[in-house]
Specification:
This protein is an all-alpha fold. It has two helices and no strands. 0% of the residues are buried.
Length: 61
C-alpha cells in the first residue's frame, strides 16, 4: 500500500486525459503556474517589507 508505481501513474494520466482533454489540461496548468508565481512574488514582497522594517528599527535605535 505504498506509493504508486509507474503503471498506476500511467493509468491515472490516461484517465485524466480522457476526462479533461489536452486543451483543458494546458489551461489548468497555466492557471496553476500563474497562481504559484503570484504566491512566490507575494512571499518575496512580504519578506522585503519585513526586512525594510527591521532595518528602519535598527537605524532608529
Amino acid at each position: 500500500m505504498g506509493s504508486f508505481g509507474l503503471w498506476e501513474w500511467v493509468i491515472i494520466l490516461v484517465i485524466v486525459l480522457l476526462i479533461f482533454g489536452t486543451s483543458r489540461l494546458t489551461d489548468i496548468g497555466k492557471g496553476l503556474g500563474g497562481a504559484i508565481n503570484e504566491f512566490k512574488n507575494a512571499l518575496e514582497e512580504g519578506k522585503d517589507k519585513s526586512d525594510n522594517a527591521e532595518d528602519e528599527e535598527q537605524q532608529d535605535a
